[in-house]
Amino acid sequence: MPQLRVALAQVNACAGDITGNSAMVLDWTRRAVQEGAHLVAFPEMVLSGYPVEDLALRKSFAAANRSELDALARRLLEAGCGDALVVVGHLDRDDEGVRNAASLLYGGEVVATYYKHHLPNYGVFDEARYFAPGHDLPIVRLHGVDIGVVICEDIWRNGGPVAALGRVGVDAVVCLNGSPYERTKNDQRTPLVTRRAAEAGAPMAYVNMVGAQDELVFDGGSLVATSEGEVQARAPQFVEHLMVLDMDLAAGGHTSTDVSPEPVEEGTPLHFRPDALPAFGVERIILQPDPLPPYEPLPPPRTPEPLPEEAEVWSALVTGLRDYVHKNGFPAVTFGFSGGIDSAVCAALAADALGPDALYGVSMPSKYSTEHSRSDAADLAQRLGCHYEVHPVADMVEVFVDRLQLSGVAEENVQARCRGITLMSLSNQLGRLVLTPGNKTELAVGYSTIYGDSVGGFAPIKDVPKTLVWRLARWRNAEAARHGETPPIPESSISKAPSAELRPDQVDTDSLPPYETLDEILDGYVEGDRSYADLVAEGFDADLVERVLQMVDRSEYKRRQYPPGSKITFKAFGRDRRLPITNRWREVRP
Amino acid sequence: MPQLRVALAQVNACAGDITGNSAMVLDWTRRAVQEGAHLVAFPEMVLSGYPVEDLALRKSFAAANRSELDALARRLLEAGCGDALVVVGHLDRDDEGVRNAASLLYGGEVVATYYKHHLPNYGVFDEARYFAPGHDLPIVRLHGVDIGVVICEDIWRNGGPVAALGRVGVDAVVCLNGSPYERTKNDQRTPLVTRRAAEAGAPMAYVNMVGAQDELVFDGGSLVATSEGEVQARAPQFVEHLMVLDMDLAAGGHTSTDVSPEPVEEGTPLHFRPDALPAFGVERIILQPDPLPPYEPLPPPRTPEPLPEEAEVWSALVTGLRDYVHKNGFPAVTFGFSGGIDSAVCAALAADALGPDALYGVSMPSKYSTEHSRSDAADLAQRLGCHYEVHPVADMVEVFVDRLQLSGVAEENVQARCRGITLMSLSNQLGRLVLTPGNKTELAVGYSTIYGDSVGGFAPIKDVPKTLVWRLARWRNAEAARHGETPPIPESSISKAPSAELRPDQVDTDSLPPYETLDEILDGYVEGDRSYADLVAEGFDADLVERVLQMVDRSEYKRRQYPPGSKITFKAFGRDRRLPITNRWREVRP
């Protein structure tokens, strides 16, 4: 049996930072080679970062990717890593278009390049906009082991290049990924990887990106599956990690380059069977024909326990916030501490992500702010050990109300907007990023003030429904208690009735149904594509469904103006849900 | 020779307003039938509106489209239009996915449905995200004339369904379009239509949508090309129009349904030749086999003169603003009259689009506002005959500056933000839509205050570079003079040096290069995909290019938070230019 030591480098790349990402690849390869790795695999588009969106279309950006790739191959050789096969995702461009590529670096050179076959173009993905699909399958032999490479979406479609690698014969498959986190996505990912490994009849090294890029969070969780379809090893989620292991290999020595097309089902129009089209171009490249002399394999890496749901979501939100702030170069964050649950959870997230010293809570009471709100806000700051300032807005509000003769909603909104100006002024004066603590439920129904509480550069819980905000608060407090620490979130912020406090004795349920019901209806309508009739048939009150659906259908403009926030659920409000504003479609007509 | 009278219904549909759009189709068909039309063609997706973005994915929306289509066929029959063939674009859904469809209604029924073959997925288009491509070619015979149908992008690719219709034999082709306006696009569109008509060997009726939907403007300009590739007739741009004419037909009587694939160039991978894939499914449907008894054809319709460039752009901007305001149901608009050129041009556009009575100018002087700004603003309002109010913001600004101890940029921004609050408060109190008068140049380099002068629901000149703003102002004034009317824009707003007036004696050129140079560099960098090296080689000062490119590369967040505005140039800042925010790519490293 041939042997091969493989390193999965689960790293955090930054979109556009080609030189920084390249330096990271060099550094991690050095570490992997020190641990004896023969093959080092990095995530999809690690060199360019992912997703780079319309940057992909800039010729100068593609040229910079290619020249850095060549330079990286040389630097790896100079650094004594020339004998390792390094698999690096990057952007490329040839006569047929821009490519989502994986290159194999060896001996100071780019020995082969694979172009992603399947380009996802749904949800957060727009790859049909950017990339031309590949149709070739380079296979390299390293120490007698035949290795094929694929990229991310290639394993999510049946009959794709993995099946072809299985037919032509390989000993191992490396799959580079930039697979964004979604709740429960791991329940799909692991069985998929093991199934494809079994299809290829070869073990698969699945290396995923970690860290966040704008609205996307990558959770890592890289893994290796055996040719029998079992998980051999798994890396932790949400941290950079180098997983080194000896692969469980069968005998090598394949020579076939004939990939017959898969049988096409009778009557299927070929337009819908791109996978069944004529043979892929298979090229076999021999780097080291003979197996290594037998060596003592490493003990298997420790596989972490899967995270419980709240911990996984909390980690995703911490990652999203941390990387947005750090990658944008902000030294600190600031936002309004209202005493309510949303700002309390955002504060606890910010303290976990950035440390309490980078967090500046601002209390901005108006004449309608209650005493308990102010004390809960101060209590929160004390629990977290963060900075805390009080800037009352009553005087500013009064001038606007008086000069412009405001009343009703206009008067309510002006309070939120004076807070927005206050925060942005502090941001301009002191360089802190303003965070936006609104939750997904609010955003769905438009229960917020545009240019008021929606002000800010990043919305940490934009994709978290209100009921989950409460669950996360309770979970985070319980975690603290479990570790003998002060629970970060004041109990009364969790237990009191939510209120915007923009008029006397106001509570959210004056305008909205109870959050438990609201979140269920929103989940059905937004995530589940349920119609009005479906929801009524499921037992929800017809008038209530009508009211909620009308609020959602009318709030598109507010949602579109909202700052980015980490995507954690299936259909986030944000760039993966695109609706016209000037739109007369109403699920329920008024 | 058979005869056929065709009506091109160049109408303004509203996204999502299925019942309203259906009523419009019925009404216009009635008018066309009164003029003797045998075939009435409506634009792409007229029933659903276009683009409907993620609404396309809602099952209830697809179902509503289909049931309205069937109802429309019945209503047409009841209205005495059952003998006319009515071609209606709509959204459809079958087992293979969602479809961009064109149905042929006749005798109270849907007699055939065509699914768009080529799905554009670049620039403003995301159709690969929504639709499954069609592969069939229904051909109907009406009064002895064989008619094929295609949709928009189908004619923009070589070797598409029009070529196939030519090979199988048709007498006329109807092409439904939702083709958005871009400057100089008509220079491409007309030769394309005439070329495809010649390829099909049959005249082509090209009917385009008119009106605006969010950021897209449709300019109409429907036309008919003869089988010799000449323009037979052309409809005006930017207005709803029913163009009725007798088509110039050759003899009919085709029977072939065998569409052989086009020859494939040696060595071309089939993945890149979807057009060369196995034959389309051709179905011939006979409605009326025999030609009509000869009748006296109509005199040819009057073809309007093409619009000069400024008039075309002005009309596009008026259309975009008018439809955004009307389709969203706002009774009036309001924004700051600063005395400067941007707000003056926006005011003239708003007066043209909505009438002066729907326009509320607001002067909001701060302590740095000059006397000439106030008098120019008042002069503008008087010239337009619109409403005009003065709400000084000095008092509000003072409270913020005093309480928060603001200076420098923070103090400058607070003035813009107090104006933003003032406008939004008036909007909340009185129901008027706030407009955002920033231009494309400002937006490109980030020369604006977020939550300040960027506040508002629609930015009329968001896609107009500053130098074009001046050209449009001069053109609009000259047009007024030519018609003996008062030029709407004060001469001094055009001629004075631009200033934000946020500190004493401030002018734009304190922070920015002269606009003539700036716009040339921006055009090269943004529209022309020129690199730093390209621009320096073209003769621009290296330091200046570096400074401008850094401003552009750093302004993505501001651009993303900006309200929508009509797209008129090739790469608008907005939904068709998508860049990561957390992005370290800089064309020039600092």
From TrEMBL, chains A, B:
CDD domains: GAT_Gln-NAD-synth (cd07570), NAD_synthase (cd00553). The keyword ATP-binding applies. GO terms for cellular component: cytoplasm. Pathway: Cofactor biosynthesis; NAD(+) biosynthesis; NAD(+) from deamido-NAD(+) (L-Gln route): step 1/1. Keywords: ATP-binding, Ligase, NAD, Nucleotide-binding. PROSITE patterns: CN_HYDROLASE (PS50263), NITRIL_CHT_1 (PS00920). L-glutamine binds at Y122, S179, K185. SUPFAM superfamilies: Adenine nucleotide alpha hydrolases-like (SSF52402), Carbon-nitrogen hydrolase (SSF56317). Signal peptide: none annotated. It comes from the Bacteria. Its EC number is 6.3.5.1. InterPro entries: C-N_Hydrolase, C-N_Hydrolase_sf, Gln-dep_NAD_synthase, NAD/GMP_synthase, NAD_synthase, Nitrilase/CN_hydratase_CS, Rossmann-like_a/b/a_fold. GO terms for biological process: NAD+ biosynthetic process. PANTHER family: GLUTAMINE-DEPENDENT NAD(+) SYNTHETASE, NH 3 /GLUTAMINE-DEPENDENT NAD + SYNTHETASE. Catalyzes the ATP-dependent amidation of deamido-NAD to form NAD. Uses L-glutamine as a nitrogen source. This is Glutamine-dependent NAD(+) synthetase. It comes from Halopolyspora algeriensis.
